[in-house]
Specification:
heterotetramer, A mainly alpha (314), B alpha/beta (369), C alpha/beta (503), D mainly alpha (331), A: 314 residues, mainly alpha, two-stranded antiparallel sheet, D: 331 residues, 13 helices
Chain lengths: 314, 369, 503, 331
């Protein structure tokens, strides 16, 4: 049964997360504190936003490697629009997000109109968008934003980091869309069998176009939050974030071949990675050791859930 | 179809390059104000400036107590930061009351570095030593550390001053620029043409050096000709290929290559060596001596500019100790740094390591880092 | 002559996830005979075949070759024992050439281990010539071949291994009549050469034309083995289904009403040229033609997959332009495609979700899916169309072909179509389900739906249609009323383009 | 019941398509890439004739040979229907091993052989996880990437390897006046291309990538072949490492930035279908040369360094789109 096996992976992952949390809180008494956990939420927001959109994209059997570059491009444009063009900062940020969203739309166009496989299309735009960020910025940073802007990335609302509200809202909305709406159904249908979806009158192209656009939007929004969090723009922002997001999505049980995956899984995967990064660091493990362990967890988690599934169905 | 696309692209690239050629500044520099030194050896007269660093909130009295210190360089896994890390370890051993460890991102990535520092703040260290990947981006997390009562000292790459207490300046940007350009002028003559191989244009230190070099060259060696700057990441094969391409493009016109990173400089030297242009094309650059020994020994590279990164780490650890003990307080004019003796305070809250060292065939074998 | 069996299977049993797929079945094949294996889908034919070809290992039972007991650990073992299989879904590699496909995994070598490519090509040529297939380039990539040509390649591949036993799993399911004839000739020729053939098919005429013996399975169990002379069609069908079947083609009398669909001078590419016809309420319009004649392309054009380049389509008197399946659906055109697995269904998804897929907007309020209503409608559909399944949450891929087809039909009925296009509605569907699908068609036309039925099976076209369109080379070469339709007339029109008489 | 339709037993024999059409059909993408290289050379040559000086040709062809060699193995993996995002990290690890052995005074042939063997061993593990544990290759290699990147820093601490014995530096040598990396690249590409086109093993990789289930039913040992192709890919990564580690007199013992993306891009731009089952290693090598040519050309035509990467992105996109248009035209 499809949904049962899916549930099994997420349950397993959630259990793993609980075990990891328990073990880590024994390692360091500073780990399992409200302030630390909230703070970790702040740090994982950008990856989280991108991973949510990426879950949809991967569930259709696609992939978007250009998100890191879109993040960088948006960051740069926020600064350039504000400082060089002279737009008011909110307008500049919205305009930059619009461009980032458009970059995602272009990905979608290349993929749907020219039927270029998503991996190749976004591999090309990965280079292109990063290049644009570099060219437009001339490698200059833009700094010195007004203080109110930092509320987004460094401030708190009701005691919780501002961007965590955004991430939580995005996660809830996205999981409702994926699980309960016809858009979500269309996503799974495309991921399982694109041809049959088309033959069933589903708008495959429009859906894909919308998803890559949404992925661009998520990356762009993450870009602005990132700028607000680190108070500066640089054209190399977000380099390699695509792999982090994909890792969270895949760890969360979304099939890389499409057709299955949930936002809950992605969020658990994301939390697991962040908890490992933070907890191990608090427990005195160095960054390089943490990377190794996350790699091993990724392989072992998928291996374990594969084994579960097989023993269940045979 | 295809040809049209290509020619359109090429036309585009020409036009962008033309529009760029009109600006006089070197590619790769930043747009902050420059302050070139005098052409002769006159030392810069430093204007006295009040302390502009930050201070930790409610820091406990750490005098004489063992400090738990974490050193977060830009990235781990390169020779330069291995050397600073070694210096910190040496100092810790010598002082005895510092428990230091180095942990950094595996790529020079601002976000990873911020996350790491954040984790260490939570885990409760007494002191943080850092080399910033971005001066502004790192500021919020450092301020958070100060607010948590942690002593924060920078080295190698600064943050905004109010985000840390002190910064150990290995050599001022204009000092490095002078040493580099003077060395190049000596080797290629006053009218030589040269090119630059850097890591990425977004790396702040490199951008600052390039900007200062441009200003100094314009002031003191006006006839030298800057050809272009190329990016080569932190990738030595790419640096090698880029240098080769420059050699091929300019032929005999190219008289010198600046390597702006400890990765680019040996690769550039290797390119010149393998092109059998030793002596015809000068390589001047920032690099660690160990990586440069073969080229210096073969007389292919005459001068390598670098401060001693082991000393830099060593000084940083001493400064941190002094800050924690309260012996280095705002307004001080110098600080004792073990075997390095007294180091002077400049620019309000910076501690100067000294003039950069120019390594040559005579002294390079005295260094091992 | 009753030679000793070359291969015999005794007491074979196999279960999957606790469900018995095969219970104590025995089966044997003699050299030089065609042994037909019959049964509805799910009767255990595929399981039996797969054990014979080494893909599955039995839970119980023995296989003997020439009287000696053997165990097949892999397909390699089986093929070493002289057993080769031509699967229903042809196992060819589109990017490889014909010759490579034939000898893949089994290349003739030169000393030193290098493949002797000239030998590969020469022997492939020889094998194809034996099959009277002189027109196939051994260097052509398989992706460029037609289904019939691919099947020939698959048979050549089986023969290349000096097969003593050749298992053919529904070899004619996707062939047009003329290719079926050629295939039957090949089978006879192989039988002459002493090859034992296991022939699985749903098509009775072929079985009576070819088989020497026939074995029937039902629900994983063994029913009987008979010489072909001892049985007639009705008897075989009732053995398979377990009950007597009145008629395979229950033609329902429906009142034929006004014209729903009017097509004039429709064009798309090479395969749809200048087609004009009309379709009325309550009518079943059969479309006959060879593979590649443009039958399916006509359907795809009407359905908006490959929008018409010129010509007009009017629905209930209103001229429409159809550029996407979605639009076709909104206009009341439904299409049950010929490739069920690829185009018709999302196999991993539950029955419920497949049923609602084409009309998901109707099951939604705003963007949200009304799960309760969706489930209710799916339950109704399953009951109405007699889909055999555990429950509506079962993935469609686990159902038999006939039940899968019913789900596809159910999906389109949810859109309340005015025009229902059925492309090969009973291909790969077993006898019982076939009759049921035909009954459903009858019920639909009674409700006033207009059906356009494309089929390669002439008996089906003749049995179900009120009128028959014949297409050849993308052009209309005949329009025949039910009363005048004979196999010969339809057959003539199907090959008409070669004489160039089409307008 | 059935209708007998008499058809002549043979239809008119389909004519064998001509050599050129066949070439276009079989090597379409490769020809697009080749054309792009030639056009670039022609245009840049006009701007600056030094572009085709012997030295610059050496830089373009030999300087990036290690990428081409790694891309050969990557092409094979992708043809089989898998992917490997850990190859950059693997090359970093192997280079460190090789350099360490060379400096430690082992004979140079051991220092050359070690990366090949270790590469094969590491990828055997990856291949086994993919083939037998049935974990998607992108997941396994994403994990392996983390493990190797972290592990390399843990173990070396990033110390550079210097004082390499001159005999070790094979990439700086020449045979018959040709730089060794060029020879490596050409010989390995030709051997691999012949092997992929004419050997039973090579053909079976296309079969597995085209339809793994069918391949299994045809009697191809799919699991064993999958492990084998990863092992071979490991060997090519080892060979690439030899070039990578001996190009300079020092070895930077970290993972070269974005090398895996470069290698994958080379393979797919060279025409290897990301879905498996088609493509050639000639394509991947040509694509590597195309990238090297673009990189060099943009310096020669004075593209502003700030816009360089954008132009590279555009050129890649143009190549991809040109190929898609070509395919459309054929359909």
């Amino acid at each position: 049964m499809n949904w049962k096996s899916l549930l099994r992976h997420e349950t397993f992952l959630a259990l793993l997360l609980v075990v990891v949390l328990i073990v880590l809180s024994f390692q360091s008494d500073r780990f399992f504190t409200v302030s630390n956990l909230l703070n970790q939420g702040r740090l994982m927001t950008e990856i989280g936003l991108i991973a949510i959109a990426m879950t949809f994209v991967i569930a259709t059997g696609g992939i978007d490697l250009s998100v890191g570059s879109i993040l960088g491009l948006t960051a740069i444009l926020t600064g350039v629009f504000w400082q060089n063009v002279g737009l008011p900062l909110p307008v500049a940020a919205v305009a930059a997000i619009a461009v980032g969203t458009f970059a995602g739309f272009v990905n979608g166009l290349i993929i749907t109109r020219f039927t270029v496989p998503p991996l190749i299309a976004t591999l090309a735009t990965l280079a292109l968008y990063r290049g644009l960020a570099e060219g437009i910025s001339q490698a200059r940073s833009v700094r010195g934003y007004p203080d109110w802007f930092y509320v987004l990335g460094q401030g708190e609302v009701l005691g919780v980091p501002t961007q965590l509200w955004i991430l939580a809202a995005a996660a809830i909305i996205a999981s409702i869309i994926l699980a309960y709406t016809r858009w979500g159904r269309t996503v799974y249908a495309i991921g399982s069998n694109e041809v049959a979806s088309r033959f069933s009158g589903l708008s495959v192209e429009k859906t894909k176009l919308a998803l890559y656009t949404a992925s661009g939007f998520a990356a762009a929004l993450a870009g602005v939050i990132f700028v607000s969090r680190v108070s500066t723009t640089r054209s190399d922002m977000g380099t390699g974030i695509e792999l982090d997001a994909i890792t969270a999505v895949v760890l969360g049980g979304t099939s890389i071949f499409g057709g299955r995956g949930t936002i809950a899984g992605t969020m658990i995967g994301l939390c697991l990675i962040q908890a490992l990064k933070n907890g191990l660091s608090l427990a005195g493990v160095k960054g390089d050791g943490t990377i190794m362990l996350i790699g091993a967890v990724l392989i072992l988690a998928i291996l374990a859930s594969n084994l579960f599934e097989r023993s269940g169905t045979r | 179809m295809r040809n049209r696309v290509l020619s359109a692209l090429l036309a585009l690239s020409f036009s962008t390059s033309l529009s760029h050629a009109q600006s006089a500044a070197w590619t790769g520099g930043d747009d902050l104000p420059t302050n070139p030194l005098a052409c002769d050896a006159t030392p810069a007269t430093a204007a006295a400036k009040p302390y502009d660093g930050g201070s930790p909130t409610n820091a406990p009295d750490r005098k004489g107590k063992t400090l738990k210190v974490v050193d977060v360089p830009k990235l781990v896994g390169i020779g330069y930061f291995n050397a600073t890390s070694k210096g910190i370890a040496d100092a810790a051993k010598e002082i005895g009351t510092i428990d230091a460890k180095t942990d950094g991102p595996s790529k020079a990535n601002i976000d990873d570095q911020i996350t790491l520092i954040d984790n260490y703040i939570t885990s409760g260290v007494d002191g943080i030593l850092f080399a910033a990947n971005d001066p502004v981006a790192i500021a919020p997390v450092l301020k958070k550390a100060l607010a948590a009562g942690i002593n924060v000292v920078g080295y190698d790459a600064n943050s905004t001053p109010d985000a840390r207490q002190w910064f150990v300046n290995q050599a001022e940007f204009n000092g490095i620029a002078k040493a580099m350009v003077d060395s190049m002028a000596k080797e290629t003559g006053e009218d030589g043409a040269f090119a630059i191989v850097t890591s990425t244009f977004t790396t702040p230190n490199q951008a600052r050096w390039i900007a200062e070099m441009a200003a100094y060259q314009a002031k003191c060696h006006p006839k030298m000709k800057w050809l272009e700057t190329v990016e080569a990441q932190e990738d030595n094969i790419l640096s090698f290929n880029q240098t080769n391409t420059l050699l091929n493009k300019y032929g005999d016109e190219l008289k010198g290559v600046f390597g702006m990173t400890s990765v680019a400089t040996p690769a550039a030297a290797d390119a010149v060596t393998q092109a059998k242009k030793c002596g015809k094309v000068a390589v001047v650059g920032l690099a660690t001596p160990n990586a440069m020994k073969p080229y210096v020994a073969a007389d292919c590279v005459k001068s390598v500019v670098l401060w001693n990164p082991v000393d830099l780490g060593y000084a940083a650890a001493h400064v941190l100790r002094a800050v924690a003990d309260g012996t280095l307080a705002p307004g001080a004019t110098s600080v004792k740094a073990g075997k390095l003796g007294d180091l002077s305070v400049i620019n309000g809250s910076e501690i100067l390591l000294g003039a950069p060292t120019v390594f040559s065939k005579d002294n390079i074998n005295n260094f091992d880092f | 002559m009753t030679a000793a069996p070359y291969v015999s299977l005794t007491g074979m049993s196999k279960s999957f996830v606790g469900v018995k797929a095969l219970k104590d079945v025995s089966f044997d094949v003699r050299p030089g005979e065609v042994h037909a294996l019959l049964g509805e889908n799910g009767a255990g034919k595929s399981t039996l075949i797969k054990m014979m070809s080494g893909l599955y290992s039995p839970d119980a039972g023995t296989i003997t070759i020439d009287g000696k007991e053997v165990r097949f650990a892999s397909t390699r073992d089986a093929s070493a024992a002289g057993i080769a299989t031509v699967y229903q879904e042809l196992l060819l590699f589109p990017e490889l050439t014909v010759a490579e496909n034939v000898f893949l995994g089994n290349y003739p070598r030169r000393p030193g281990g290098w493949i002797d490519w000239s030998e590969v090509r020469a022997r492939t040529r020889a094998l194809l010539d034996q099959l009277d297939t002189f027109d196939l380039d051994v260097d052509a990539k398989v992706l460029t071949l037609s289904v019939a040509q691919r099947q020939r390649v698959e048979i050549a591949k089986a023969l290349s291994k000096d097969a003593r036993i050749l298992i053919m799993d529904e070899p004619t399911a996707s062939l047009v009549e003329s290719d079926v004839q050629r295939l039957m000739a090949v089978v006879r020729q192989l039988r002459e050469r002493g090859v034992g053939i296991v022939y699985v098919s749903h098509r009775m005429p072929e079985i009576f034309a070819l088989a020497d013996r026939v074995t029937v399975l039902r629900d994983g169990g063994y029913v009987a083995t008979r010489d072909i002379g001892e049985v007639d069609e009705a008897e075989l069908v009732s053995m398979m289904v377990g009950r007597p079947i009145d008629s395979l083609f229950p033609k329902a009398e429906a009142a034929i009403g006004d014209t729903v669909l009017e097509v004039k001078n429709l064009n798309h590419g090479r395969h749809v040229q200048d087609l004009s016809f009309s379709l009325r309420r309550g009518e079943i319009l059969g479309v006959a033609g060879l593979v590649g004649s443009g039958r399916t392309e006509l359907a795809l054009t009407l359905f908006g997959m490959t929008p018409a380049t010129s010509g007009s389509i009017s629905l209930e008197g209103r001229t429409v332009s159809i550029t996407s399946p979605r639009q076709a659906r909104d206009l009341g055109i439904a299409y049950v495609p010929e490739d069920r697995g690829q185009q018709g269904l999302v196999k991993q998804m539950a029955i419920r979700k497949n049923v609602s897929m084409a009309s998901i907007e109707r099951f939604s309020s705003g963007i949200f899916i009304k799960a309760g209503e969706e489930a209710q409608r799916a339950l109704d559909a399953v009951k109405r169309l007699r889909v055999r399944c555990r429950n509506i949450a079962q993935p469609v891929g686990e159902l038999s072909g006939g039940n899968q087809q019913k789900v596809v039909i159910a999906k389109w009925l949810e859109t309340n179509p005015k025009v229902l296009i059925l492309d090969e509605p009973t291909r790969g569907v077993d006898v019982g389900a076939k009759a049921e699908i035909h009954t459903i068609m009858g019920e639909l036309v009674k409700q006033g739906v207009a059906i356009l039925m494309i089929s390669s099976e002439l008996p089906e076209v003749l049995g179900m249609s009120d009128r028959i369109l014949v297409i050849s080379g993308g052009r209309l070469t005949g329009e025949i009323d039910r009363a005048d339709a004979t196999p010969e007339r339809v057959g003539m029109a199907m090959t008409a383009h070669q004489s160039g008489e089409a307008a | 019941m059935s209708v007998i339709v008499d058809l002549p037993p043979t239809r008119p024999a389909t004519e064998r398509p001509g050599f050129l059409r066949r070439l276009f059909a079989d090597y379409g993408q490769e020809l697009v890439v080749l054309a792009a290289i030639i056009v670039l050379f022609a245009v840049v040559m006009l701007v600056n004739p030094r572009f085709i000086s012997a030295n610059n040709l050496t830089t373009i062809f030999a300087g990036n040979a290690y990428i081409a060699v790694a891309a050969i193995g990557m092409a094979m993996v992708i043809i089989t229907g898998h992917i490997d995002v850990s190859v950059g990290a693997l090359i970093g690890v192997l280079a460190t091993i090789s350099g360490t052995l060379a400096v430690a005074g082992y004979p140079v042939w051991i220092a050359w052989l070690a990366p090949v063997l270790v590469g094969m061993a590491v990828n055997a593990c990856i291949g086994a996880l993919v083939a037998y544990a049935r974990i998607p290759s992108i997941v396994v290699t994403l994990g392996a990437l983390s493990i190797m990147r972290g592990g390399l820093i843990s173990f070396t601490g990033g110390t550079w390897i210097t004082d390499l014995p001159p005999a070790f530096l094979i990439a700086q040598k020449s045979v018959f006046g040709l730089p060794v990396p060029l020879v490596f690249m050409v010989v390995l590409t030709v051997l691999a291309a012949l092997w992929m086109r004419y050997s039973a093993f090579g053909r079976s990789l296309y079969a597995i990538g085209g339809n793994a289930e069918a391949a299994l039913a045809t009697g191809i040992p799919v699991e064993r072949r999958t492990v084998a192709v990863f092992v071979i890919h490991g060997a090519f990564a080892g060979l690439a490492t030899i070039l990578f580690a001996t190009q300079l007199q020092v070895i930077q013992s970290t993972v070269p930035p974005n090398l895996e993306l470069t290698v994958i891009t080379a393979a797919v731009i060279g025409g290897v279908s990301i879905l498996g089952g088609s493509g050639t290693v000639i394509g991947s090598t040509l694509a590597t040369i195309l990238f090297a040519t673009i990189g060099s050309a943009l310096i020669f035509v004075n593209v502003s360094a700030y816009w360089l990467r954008a132009v590279i992105g555009l050129l890649i996109l143009a190549t991809v789109l040109a190929d898609m248009l070509r395919r459309r035209g054929r359909l």
